[in-house]
Amino acid sequence: MVSPNETEMTEFILQGFSEHPSLRLFLIGCFLLLYTTALVGNIVIIALVTSSTGLHSPMYFFLCNLATMDIVCTTSVLPKALVGLFSEENTISFNGCMAQLFFLIWFGSSELLLLTVMAYDRYVAICFPLHYSTRMSPQLCGVLAMGVWSICATNACVHTGLMTRLSFCGPKVITHFFCEIPPLLLLSCTPTYVNSIMTLIADFLFGGINFVLTLLSYGCIIASILRMRSAEGKRKAFSTCSSHLIVVAMYYSSVLSAYISPAFSYSPERSKFSSVLYSVLSPTLNPLIYTLRNKDVKLALGRIFASFSH
Question: Helices 210-226 and 231-259, interaxial angle, to 10°?
Fold first, then answer.
């Protein structure tokens, strides 16, 4: 609790990129471009999957969920970051900070869990193609998606609730461009032991275990592909998995860099760079990767463009 001679924090100042004033215009241009691309790309993915009957399969159902997560993730970060780049001082209320933290944890951890579910979907499709439609039934896909959303919402509630129990009595400058666990813990004037332990547990559960399960799925997939006799079959199997593998590698490397390394030595500059990768760049590139490397999505997109041209 806060002692009588201390005042409870009602707002924070987001440092953002104020220590690099020469990069301000460059960053405004980059962030506006990335945000627009992320919104348009992910909305197009959702529109394609919902309107094209050829994309009504488990793989594209999960891709639609991923696109929704990416939209919320970028929207919870970039508008506020852009306000900070346009203004002299970027303040955020305590409640606003907690709301931003909640949505980031919810959708960030949801993406980690969903990527594991998508890896399992590819594993069943390639290793058990004859049983794919029965194993990955619409009912099971719905349960898996609801499980991802609800488990990760609970995770976000736990971490946000623990953060609200802390007292922040100054300084109030968050050395980041959004509210994130590591820089917020540095500002607390009450013990953060429980928060740190719970963060490490979440890192292990959502980062470590999901990463291992994803690797196991792809280990089985690669072994199955190598046993195929047809060169065309091998090429088709690799092409369906390559886009997902690229997304997994990109997302995990940025998230692990942002959340695992600060447990040992927190660096504001490194944390900002890692956070740009997973909260801004990854949601922007995901629809491009899945669109450019997927024949079904390109065909559906082509049909939509053709319908507009007539």
Answer: 160
pLDDT in tens, 238-292: 776 777 788 888 787 777 666 655 545 667 777 787 788 788 888 888 888 877 6
First-to-last C-alpha distance (Å) of the chain: 67
Whole-structure pTM value:
0.87
Helices within 88-205 (DSSP H only): 94-127, 132-135, 138-164, 181-187, 193-202
Stretches where the chain sits below pLDDT 50 are: 1-2, 4-6, 263
- DSSP annotation of 261 reads G
Report the alpha-carbon angle 97-103-107, nearest 5: 150
Distances from the Cα of 85 to the Cαs of 60, 256, 279, in angstroms?
A: 36, 27, 17
Return d(Cα 302, Cα 170) in angstroms, integer.
Answer: 55
